[in-house]
Amino acid sequence: MAKQVKLTARSRSESGRNAVKRVRARGCVPAVIYGHRTAPANLEVSHRELEVLLSHAVGESILVDLEIQDGSKTSNQLSLIQEVQRHTLRPQILHIDFQAVSMTEKISADITIEPFGEADGVKNFGGLLEQSIRSLAIRCLPQDLPEIIKVDVSALKIGDSIHVRDLPLPGGVEADVDADLTVFIVAEPAVAIEATAKEGTAGPEVIKEKKTEGSSDKK
After folding, report:
1. Domains in the chain with CATH codes
2. Which residues, at least 6 apart from 193, have a Cβ–Cβ distance to it below 8 Å?
């Protein structure tokens, strides 16, 4: 299951472009927290602490125990990182969204799917392992949230596939998508597919007229 990590945040009352610039100028990241029947609130978190947290994360869905400082008051709120906006050119986090959650209510999250092992069809027959779904939408209680879903593909032969219904989900976790969706499939070797295509596009056979005895090409 996903580990809960701690992060300190400060409440901020200012908003707007200039306020955001001031937040970033002091080495922090503008943030917002919403959900769980509470009004959205503006926050700021340390850019350095946030980078360290994200660099150690295994998957994309991270449970955070936010310690929110608001003047002389401090409160804790369990939350899920929903979106991280990064600068397109510089290694800078521009904004982060937190979703407040409750330990007694199910949450929705996207969990990374990662294969392990070498498929038999790839190892012994030159096939290609294709992954159609990179992350799975799931529902579960926060304490059951997995960091990542690892799938053993070593037994797959040419033409074999693994569907959502076949995934080894932890207890308390349910897929929130069609169970018949294909996640992995071992396709035929590219050479075999190419050869089949060439056979199917062969040109028509040319039949020449048989010359009769004594006939001549000269006129």
Report:
1. 4-101 (2.40.240.10), 108-200 (2.170.120.20)
2. 187
DSSP string, 122-180: HHTT--EEEES-SEEEEEE-GGG--S-EEEE-TT--TT-EEEGGGS-PPTT-EE-S-TT
Closest CA to 98 of 143, 59, 68: 68
Q: Which two tokens stand for residue 83?
A: 């979106």
- Give CA separation, 126 vs 14, 134, 160, 179, in Å: 59, 23, 14, 29
Please name which of 89, 84, 80, 94 lies closest in space to residue 33, comparing C-alpha atoms.
Answer: 80
DSSP at 216:
-
In degrees to the nearest 10, what's the CA dihedral of 140, 143, 149, 151? -100
pTM reported for the whole predicted model: 0.77
What are 94's two structure tokens? 């521009």
Torsions phi, psi for 52 (to 5 deg): -60, -45
3-state secondary structure of 191: helix
**Residue linked to tokens 């392992």:** 129
Segment 128-185, tens digit of pLDDT: 999 999 999 999 999 999 999 999 999 999 999 999 999 999 999 999 999 999 999 9
Would you give the DSSP letter of residue 53?
H
